[in-house]
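Memo subject: From amino acid sequence to discrete backbone structure tokens
Keywords: amino acid chain, backbone geometry, structure tokens, three-dimensional fold.
Body of memo: The sequence and its backbone structure tokens, given next.
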Amino acid sequence: MEINATLIGQLITFAILVWFIMKYVWPPISKAMQEREKNIAAGLEAAERSKRELDAAQHKAISIIHDAKRDASHVVESAHKRSVQILEEAKDAAREEGNRLIAHAKNEIEREVTQAKDVLRKQLSQLAVQGAEKIIKHNLDAAKQKALLDEFVAEL
């Protein structure tokens, strides 16, 4: 293998090309690749962070939904208890009102019975007086008095 001028010229040209590429072309390419690498790493980190945040948000949403369901269950349960309590209070109030009306009706009935008895007593006393007047007017013998009393009883 002979070393001649063309080979040396090619080596010098190659060396100048390598030096030129290393001096002017390689640094921007290297810088662009490093920036690209940083961007990709940042993107991957952001994606990982977003995935963790999404998982945390999903867990938080599930927790909130669970709490909301539990709270809704408590609200429904307390509303049911309150409705039962209101119904019981209404039943008690109705019983009290019914008892009060029954007592009032009994008092009214007793008053009307007393009035009726008073009216009957007055009528009976008037009838007794009328019967006595008839007996006295006809002061007759025992057979006539018995007949008058039988007639009086028949009129009653």
User: Anything to note?
Assistant: Residues 5-155 form one domain. The mean pLDDT is 87. The chain is about 95% helix and 0% strand. The first helix runs from residue 5 to 137.
